[in-house]
Design goal:
Elements: E1 11-14, H1 22-52, H2 59-87, E2 92-94, H3 95-128, H4 133-136, H5 139-164, E3 174-175, H6 182-186, H7 194-227, H8 232-260, H9 268-292, H10 295-304
Length: about 300
């Protein structure tokens, strides 16, 4: 129960980047806005190219399409309000709106983790079991994997949002972050949060460590298979199909794991700066690294523009 000497909180205020001066916030606003627009445009281009080109109607690009949609929704849930707070610091957000933002952030964020795992499995089957690839990665199997990712994201969000917002909030209402995240919110609760922190840790282990382990096992098997390929050209081509996915996985899981699996931190500014990586930069990294550097996608894009494909 809330303490009698405290006023029950009905809205929160983001501390965001108010520690910086107006000029620095304006620079950050321009940088983040450009990155946000590039993310939206890149994902829109990828979705359009994949949809229009039948040669890209494969499991790999199916998962990439779903990831692009999820990443777009993920950024829409966070970045617009963050940009607004850079121009007008200390903006208030009601508890229902905060819960909604956390819900969508977790749904799409966890979904992205699961989709990256599914994409790792797709690469494993393509390289380690190529003769049965079309059977194993059938249309039905791809839809089931994508649906499972969405279901896990949705279930995680429901559990976490229910857990966090069942806490009483009173007194302090300034969130040491630029969006409604789990740990900064729980710090404001005027109740024992030990059980809630344990729930968060267990869920983080399930949605971060387990997928990382599965991806690691997949790549151990993939590398073992690639090293058995006789021709150097064949090995190079096989490694190239995995390099982009592995790059995105390392950046994505590296940053999120540092935030959610590390011990409590008193350096909230450092946490915010790291959070920028997986909320602003990684969503742009996915389409650029994973697709726009892919020869098949570039050829399809050039054909859509009426130009000859790259040789």
């Amino acid at each position: 129960m809330p303490r009698p000497n405290f006023t029950v909180v009905t809205e929160f205020t983001f501390e965001g980047f108010s520690i910086f001066g107006k000029e620095h916030r304006l620079i950050l606003f321009v940088v983040f806005l450009v990155l946000y627009l590039l993310t939206l445009v890149s994902n829109a281009v990828i979705l359009t190219v994949i949809h229009l080109n039948r040669q890209l109607h494969t499991p790999m690009y199916f998962f990439l399409s779903v990831l692009s949609i999820s990443e777009t929704c993920y950024t829409v849930a966070i970045i617009p309000r963050m940009l607004s707070s850079l121009l007008s610091p200390k903006q208030a957000i009601s508890i229902p709106h905060c819960a909604t933002q956390l819900f969508f952030y977790l749904t799409f964020g966890v979904n992205n983790c699961c989709l990256l795992t599914a994409m790792g499995y797709d690469r494993y089957v393509a390289i380690c079991n190529p003769l049965r690839y079309s059977v194993i990665m059938s249309k039905r199997a791809c839809i089931q994997l994508a649906s499972g990712s969405w279901s896990i994201g949705l279930s995680t969000a429901i559990i976490q949002v229910s857990s966090v917002f069942s806490l009483p909030f009173c007194g302090a209402n300034v969130i040491s972050h630029f969006f409604c995240d789990i740990r900064p919110l729980m710090k404001l609760a005027c109740a024992d949060i030990t059980i809630k922190e344990l729930i968060t840790l267990l869920i983080s282990l399930c949605v971060l460590v387990l997928p990382m382990v599965l991806i690691f096992i997949s790549y151990v098997l993939i590398v073992t298979t690639i090293l058995k390929i006789a021709s150097s050209e064949g090995r190079k081509k096989a490694f190239a199909t995995c390099a982009s996915h592995l790059t995105v996985v390392i950046v994505h899981y590296g940053c999120t794991s540092f935030i959610y699996l590390k011990p409590k931190s008193q350096n909230s500014l450092q946490d915010r700066l790291i959070s920028v990586t997986y909320t602003v930069i990684t969503p742009l990294l996915n389409p650029v690294v994973y697709s726009l550097r892919n020869k098949e996608v570039k050829d399809a894009l050039l054909r859509a523009l009426g130009r000859k494909p790259l040789s």
